[in-house]
Recover the amino acids of this structure.
């Protein structure tokens, strides 16, 4: 809300500078977000007098003027057709910054003629649209007077961020009332006197409220025989300064009173109101109405309409209708001042997507006690500005009478909530200054507080506690330097997220953070049921990610485009689906979400190692990282199985990560189909594992096992197999049949060649054998090894290579 | 002294330098010959007593001695310097080692971790919650009535009629309170979503850290003390702070906390928009309506809650001027956060 500092002075005597007032308002919750002062904006703009106008010797359309700025004469080249000797104009001295374009006025040469300064148009001063000619001021303007002082009376505009709980401050009187309370000054309300010479209004206007829950109060006043022109300068200036565009005297008055009282008003051309009657009712379903912005709306029974006896004439509290808008030729005006229920206006405004100054105030709550006064004020001003005859009295339908709320209050609550005690007299003082009347209560230690109707936010005791500390000063509440903590014997598991990240940092990965909202086209590859956003911000954010991989690929692409080709990335983040997935949790009907861990490798294995200059990442780099990761968390029962998925097409050449027979992740090479989407041609290896696996099964508590007392023995074996036999099968067989002596099976070579025949391969492994009981003897070792060799032969048809 | 002894000394100098292999040896050489009390200078002294007819020849020889000694010294010194960088076997020891890559945490994670550590040291436990929420947890239980303008403060992404992406971490407060009895002392970090236009200063998704303490004697004074302590630990002990009244539906009284700009020390700069202050968090005393929604008796307990945005603070801390940079994940940015 824009508030003019000078305008406030109509209602309260202001004891301090605008800077001090701004900071005081901020400290009571009316945050002055920015300040705009006319004397800063119009620095070096003064009233000038055109002393002479000559033709420019070298340009037909330009003239050369002598401008007297109160001190000296300046020669200025001017292009305006309307410049003339003797005019009072706005003169920008050199160094002035032109408001409309931010450019500095300098001494320049225009076609051989030096020009030192500028005569300004309305447009350049941001006072209006006219940029054809210069702004000509009345003759009494005195040369040398600062323009800011002459035109704006050196005003300052506060831009105040009014929080939704303070509708009472959406007006100048509201803010003045706050200042009056803070500085203990009286508030001066406008003096309203109206010359009523027409017939009683009740004879000319009927009002019927059909839905009093939507419209508890409706006041109408009539004035006719008016002659609408422009509103006077003083009013236009006030409106312009706070950002309201002047239109005509009647419309300007309704806006002016809204900015003064916070009460939105509507003016109807009364000559088009049928049946001399206003009917306030909700719309029929599918009823159509055209608002004055020429948009047609389709309404429902939840939208309130203002109608005459035949048709709707306004969308209550939101916008007037085309059919009853004030015209320049209008002579008879109905002023509406109403109290519409916040829920009703809010609903219509949301439903139709229209927010106006009017709806903004109604949905927050206007003061139901000043409805009539605001109507009177408007009529007073219209009569003053446009003449006319005012009908006697007003029609005031008030079926839903709003009574001031009574709130019981215990002063001890102040101490309980704030931690400081404020003496009762001080508390009383604050409440009274805020317009709250205090009455005795039957209960001891309790008061009954009567809340003024302009403060709909004060409903409960706690609201009053807030009011008290707000005015008393948040800074007067000490920052307590101790807190008592009660120990809660929770079984708090160490933070798995921290530990995972620790591992990744140690392993040389960069953490990335990607948007959870992704476009549909990259979200289908994981084979999970997508969650879509109903109102996405754009087409790149229609879905919630079903996997971390596509987002990380986007990061890979971004980096590749910038020449960052060697990447080791990880992300820990949430993924979503409409169906359950491993590690997912279910909070909200139809939706499942779970944290996931993504890894991605591409480019050089180790770009900082010059001896491995050309070593590109391959599948085994990724698998090794995954194995180390599981090793760190003692997840030793992980099984790796070939992964064939028809639904998940993110990964080719993939291995599934299984735990207790459940698939918890996968790793492999990014599939061509999704790589194509990102136009990535580099080989990228990726893995994704659900984080719950770590949460559920990671062994974080450490257990010591005796270090073997006896030395291990190593035996290397090579077997010849058919190509189809996988190392994993061999490993399994050896472990199974090598119990209890075989501790470790290490792969060290594979050989293919003529020596062993086509379609065959030789796989070499190293076995580590160990007994916890004794040093193994040669015969024991031989026996174990030959048992293994036999088993390999039986199960896998592998032949020991000698 | 005669010409012969000078020539002998020249030979001695030449053989001595042969035995110099370390910096220490070289220093001994210098002390022996080249300092003021050294052999060369002393022989020059002897020139004064030499027969006048010998002097020209002797002088010439002595100059030769001095030149030779100095030259040998300088050469040797240079050789030794070079040796420092080359091993005896001829390996270039200045070639970089085989470095492993250095891993990083995302700057947002780092800021969040630092904040979390501070609150943990003040006795707060960590709680997490879902990112898909319903109207009840995200709004209603937090005292945002349906059809209330306060809802406009947070532009919401909807999934269906009631399901939405949480607009703040405050629904986790509701979940924590519904799952346990007071006392409660928790922080709740997480990702939140707002349907706001994307610009250098705002993104449709960001991270928050929420805090909640509920017990029998929790007061606004304790809230101020807690957050002031946090601010000093996080932003530095000289930081100044101010609490301003504000409005949030789920707290009453509500406040916003500003801290003195840590870049300009409160003098006013581009980052703090010349005000000298930075808005860092919102807070307040838990509204009785929130307690009622979770089944707590507001006559028995009081509590405070606070919430802060991590991403914007991260930008301020490191002087990154576009929030989108955080989610582009250019490794040249990430690698600066080792």
């Amino acid at each position: 809300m824009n508030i003019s500092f000078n305008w406030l002075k109509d209602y309260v005597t202001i004891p301090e500078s605008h800077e001090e007032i701004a900071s005081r308002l901020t400290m009571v919750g009316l945050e002055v977000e920015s300040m705009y002062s006319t004397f800063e904006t119009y620095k070096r703009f003064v009233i000038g007098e055109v002393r002479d106008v000559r033709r420019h010797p070298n340009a037909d359309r330009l003239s050369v003027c002598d401008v007297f700025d109160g001190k000296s004469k300046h020669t200025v080249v001017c292009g305006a057709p309307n410049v003339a000797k003797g005019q009072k104009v706005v003169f920008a001295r050199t160094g002035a910054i032109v408001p409309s374009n931010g450019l500095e006025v300098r001494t320049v040469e225009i076609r051989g003629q030096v020009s030192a300064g500028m005569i300004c148009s309305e447009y350049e001063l941001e006072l209006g649209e006219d940029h054809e000619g210069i702004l000509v001021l009345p003759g009494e303007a005195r040369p040398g007077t600062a323009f800011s002082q002459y035109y704006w009376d050196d005003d300052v505009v506060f831009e105040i961020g009014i929080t939704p709980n303070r509708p009472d401050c959406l007006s100048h009187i509201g803010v003045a009332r706050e200042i009056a309370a803070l500085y203990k000054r009286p508030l001066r309300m406008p003096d309203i006197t109206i010359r009523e010479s027409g017939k009683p209004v009740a004879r000319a206007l009927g009002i019927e409220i059909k839905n009093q829950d939507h419209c508890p109060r409706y006041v109408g006043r009539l004035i006719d025989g008016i002659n609408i022109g422009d509103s006077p300068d003083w009013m236009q200036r006030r409106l312009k300064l706070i950002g309201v565009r002047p239109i005509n005297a009647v419309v300007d008055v309704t806006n002016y009173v809204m900015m003064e009282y916070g009460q939105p008003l509507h003016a109807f051309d009364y000559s088009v109101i049928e049946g001399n009657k206003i009917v306030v009712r909700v719309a029929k379903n599918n009823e159509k109405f055209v608002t004055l912005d020429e948009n047609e709306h389709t309404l429902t029974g939840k939208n309130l309409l203002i109608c005459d006896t035949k048709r709707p004439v306004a969308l209550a509290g939101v916008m007037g209708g085309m059919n009853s808008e004030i015209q320049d030729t209008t002579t008879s005006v109905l002023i509406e001042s109403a109290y519409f229920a916040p829920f009703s206006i809010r609903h219509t405004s949301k439903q139709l997507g229209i927010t106006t100054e009017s709806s903004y105030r109604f949905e927050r709550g206007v003061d139901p006690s000043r409805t009539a006064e605001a109507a009177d004020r408007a009529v007073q001003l219209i009569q003053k500005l446009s003449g006319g005859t005012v009908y006697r009295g007003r029609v005031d339908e008030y079926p839903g009478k709003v009574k001031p709320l009574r709130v019981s209050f215990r002063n001890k609550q102040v101490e309980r909530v704030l931690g400081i005690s404020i003496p009762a007299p001080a508390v009383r003082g604050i409440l009274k200054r805020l317009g709250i009347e205090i009455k005795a209560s039957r209960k001891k230690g309790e008061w009954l507080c009567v809340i003024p109707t302009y403060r709909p936010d004060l409903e409960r005791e706690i609201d009053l506690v807030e009011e008290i500390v707000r005015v008393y000063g948040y800074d007067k509440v000490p920052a307590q330097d101790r807190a008592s903590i009660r120990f809660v014997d929770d079984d708090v598991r160490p933070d798995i997220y921290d530990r995972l990240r620790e591992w990744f940092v140690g392993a040389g990965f960069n953490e990335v953070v990607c948007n959870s909202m992704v476009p549909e086209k990259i979200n289908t590859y994981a084979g999970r049921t997508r969650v879509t956003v109903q109102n996405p911000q754009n087409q790149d954010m229609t879905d919630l990610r079903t996997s971390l991989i596509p987002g990380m690929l986007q990061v890979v692409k971004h980096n590749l485009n910038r020449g960052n080709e060697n990447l080791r990335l990880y992300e820990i983040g949430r993924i979503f689906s409409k169906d359950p997935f491993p590690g997912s949790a279910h909070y909200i009907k139809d939706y499942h979400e779970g944290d996931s861990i993504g890894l991605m490798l591409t480019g050089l294995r180790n770009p900082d190692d010059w001896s491995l200059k050309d070593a590109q990442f391959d599948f085994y780099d990724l698998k090794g990282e995954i194995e180390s990761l599981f090793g760190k968390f003692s997840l030793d029962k992980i099984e790796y199985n070939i992964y064939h998925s028809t639904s998940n097409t993110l990964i080719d050449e993939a291995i599934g990560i299984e735990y207790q027979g459940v698939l918890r992740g996968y790793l492999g090479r990014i599939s061509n189909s999704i790589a194509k989407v990102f136009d990535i041609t580099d080989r990228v290896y990726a893995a994704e594992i659900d984080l719950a696996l770590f949460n559920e099964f990671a062994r974080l508590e450490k257990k010591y096992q005796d270090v073997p007392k006896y030395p291990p023995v190593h035996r290397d074996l090579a077997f010849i197999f058919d190509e189809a036999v996988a190392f994993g099968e061999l490993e399994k067989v050896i472990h199974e049949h090598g119990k209890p002596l075989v501790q470790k099976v290490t792969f060290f070579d594979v050989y293919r060649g003529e020596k062993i025949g086509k379609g065959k391969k030789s796989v070499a492994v190293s076995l580590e054998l160990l007994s916890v009981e004794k040093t193994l003897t040669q015969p024991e070792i031989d026996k174990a090894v030959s048992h293994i060799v036999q088993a390999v032969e039986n199960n896998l048809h592998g032949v020991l290579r000698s | 002294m005669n010409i012969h002894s000078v020539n002998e000394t020249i030979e001695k100098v030449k053989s001595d330098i042969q035995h110099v292999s370390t910096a220490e040896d070289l220093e001994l050489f210098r002390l022996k010959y080249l300092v003021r009390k050294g052999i060369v200078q002393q022989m020059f002294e002897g020139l004064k007593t030499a027969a006048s007819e010998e002097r020209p020849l002797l002088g010439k020889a002595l100059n030769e001695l001095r030149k030779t000694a100095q030259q040998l010294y300088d050469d040797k010194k240079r050789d030794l310097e070079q040796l420092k960088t080359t091993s005896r076997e001829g390996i270039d020891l200045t070639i970089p080692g085989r470095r492993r890559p250095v891993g990083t945490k995302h700057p947002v994670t780092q800021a969040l971790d630092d904040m979390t550590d501070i609150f943990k040291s003040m006795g707060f436990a960590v709680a997490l919650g879902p990112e898909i929420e319903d109207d009840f947890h995200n709004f209603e239980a937090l005292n945002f009535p349906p059809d209330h303008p306060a809802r406009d403060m947070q532009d919401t992404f909807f999934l269906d009629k009631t399901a939405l992406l949480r607009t703040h971490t405050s629904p986790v407060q509701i979940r924590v309170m519904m799952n346990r009895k007071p006392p409660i002392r928790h922080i709740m970090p997480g990702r939140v979503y707002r349907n706001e236009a994307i610009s250098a200063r705002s993104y449709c998704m960001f991270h928050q850290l929420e805090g909640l303490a509920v017990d029998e004697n929790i007061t606004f004074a304790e809230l101020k003390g807690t957050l002031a302590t946090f601010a000093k630990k996080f932003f530095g002990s000289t930081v100044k702070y101010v609490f301003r009244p504000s409005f949030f539906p789920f707290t009453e009284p509500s406040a916003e906390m500003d801290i003195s700009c840590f870049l300009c020390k409160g003098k006013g700069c581009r980052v703090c928009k010349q005000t000298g202050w930075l808005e860092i968090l919102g807070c307040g005393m838990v509204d009785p309506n929130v307690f009622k929604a979770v089944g707590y008796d507001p006559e028995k307990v009081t509590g405070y809650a606070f919430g802060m945005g991590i991403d914007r603070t991260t930008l301020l801390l490191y002087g990154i001027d576009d929030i989108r940079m955080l989610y582009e994940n250019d490794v040249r940015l990430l690698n600066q956060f080792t």
User: Anything to note?
Assistant: Chain B has a mean pLDDT of 91. Residues 3-85 of chain B form one domain. Chain B has twelve helices and nine strands. The beta strands of chain B are 125-126, 132-134, 163-165, 184-193, 205-215, 241-248, 251-260, 277-286, 302-309.
